[in-house]
Amino acid sequence: MAFMYITLKVSPVVTEQGTSAYAFDLSQVSLTSGRFLENQQRTLTYLKWVDVNRLLYNFRANHKLSTNGAAKNGGWDAPDFPFRTHMQGHFLTAWAQCYATTGDTTCRDRAKSFVAELQKCQANNAAAGFSTGYLSGFPESDFSALEARTLSNGNVPYYAVHKTMAGLLDVWVHIGDTTARDVLLALAGWVNTRTGKLSTSQMQNLMGTEFGGMNEVLANIYHQTGDKKWLTAAQRFDHAAVFDPLASNQDKLNGLHANTQVPKWIGAAREFKATGTTRYRDIARNAWDITVKAHSYAIGGNSQAEHFHEPNGIASYLTTDTAEACNSYNMLKLTRELWTLNPSSTTYFDFYERTLMNHLLGQQNPADSHGHITYFTPLIPGGKRGVGPAWGGGTWSTDYDSFWCCQGTGIETNTKLMDSIYGYDNSTLFVNLFTPSVLKWTQRSVTITQTTTFPVSDTTTLKVEGVGDWAMNIRIPSWTSNAEISINGQKVTGVSTTPGSYARVSRTWTSGDVVTIRLPMSIRTIAANDKSGVAAVAFGPVVLSGNYGSSASVKRTSDSSLDFTASANGQNIKMGPFYDAQGFNYNVYWTMAS
Ligand SMILES: [Zn+2]
């Protein structure tokens, strides 16, 4: 298989403040085998198959253009669903990521032609009775009602507009499409004009309605263009009721709709990087710490019935509607932002690994060639993926009749699974995740090929091609012990491999050098914060699930797979990775025998 590396990325013009390490561009890392790649392939099949005219229906209808005979969608893109067209921005991002990572021209062409059609919608605003720059599948009058606090149809209009803006930005940045830039800046101009007329208290009141990551995307447009008016617009979306307690590290999350908040925190991180104002950094960091430590399940997900509850409420909330997938998608974005500010801490990628492997990887149905997903991941004893309450439709997502928020973030997640495996600074390569992949570290003319069946195997190898003096910082996860590193078969001595730190291997590298990392795994329990007798069971990074019962002993039955047996309620049961628990009833949290 040949790999293509695309260099059309449009770089931001503003230098980020406070950043001391960087993520690689999507075009620099390719997946080569394993579950990450399999998930990606299924999503790519769907992205290249879906009928683009159906996705344009609501935009065209709203902007008074012909819908060209296209069929209407159902679910959250039905013509009468209040925030219809929230989904299309996710498609734009996913197509852009598909092109950036694989060079697939079908994805590129779909993104570009979709954007061209959106431009026609925007150009017809005068005839449709909308203001210049407006672009949406629902009437502009919903924004008037939002501002007057009389909006009663269930719409979250800025939430939907945020998705469109984020998608247009990704098409501009990853594909280099200047039409996407023009449509984006016109829409952002509409936001700026509209919000610029409101008083501070009108803006703060308006933010009582979910608005996605408006501060994030506007800050990103500032980073991209250097035009300060976008930063000013971003800062109008600083939600004081949420930011103020977080700035002083108070956990006031109880009762809040969870996924409404996380994008605001990502925005705070982007605003810190734009301004250097440490209050933004503190808000983002404190939000992450509070959520990870006091509101997250063993699989890394948070929320029950879409809401945060009291701090450490875990065992009390093991239900069918736990762990909305969007929240984890957004928490991982926040994690990346924070890691670049503090790349010596492995806490960030310990969480990233935990959440990606145990929540989001298994959110996708491996039996579905279109990679459909589940909205919640039930943690109720005897739960089953794809069999949730009404939001989830009682099923997996479908081709045209779901279009839930989590389906949108799902197609994004599964087209950027490679984006956090590695990181870098001027002298260092960070190895953050263990998965088969090739990195083109073009900044140093070095190629890294990682080969592994991790987490089935506890060992990974990294082959270096290219020469030079630099350090490899290898994440030694907190779950391991007695980690070993060898180079060209020789055990490395004098390098600390303390769990929960980066092992730093500095040398003059030669083409063909092979680094072997062994991270021994063992059975461990992850107790619920609020009930020490209730715990999930993990083997190394992998949360295991099995049949309902109380667990006493867990034994691995094979070295070549992650199959286990356990004794529960006096019976032997089978256990395996939770990410493989699709199509049957499972148990994740157990009452532990004393
Ligand atoms: Zn969601």
UniProtKB/TrEMBL annotation:
Which SUPFAM superfamilies has this protein been placed in? Six-hairpin glycosidases
- The Non-reducing end beta-L-arabinofuranosidase-like GH127 middle domain sits at 428-521
Signal peptide range equals: none
Question: Where does the source fall among the domains of life?
Answer: Eukaryota
* InterPro entries in the record: 6-hairpin_glycosidase_sf (IPR008928), Beta-AFase-like_GH127_cat (IPR012878), Beta-AFase-like_GH127_middle (IPR049046)
Domain (Non-reducing end beta-L-arabinofuranosidase-like GH127 catalytic) spans 28-417
Gene Ontology process terms (BP):
carbohydrate metabolic process
- This one is known as Six-hairpin glycosidase-like protein
Q: Which organism is it from?
A: Clohesyomyces aquaticus
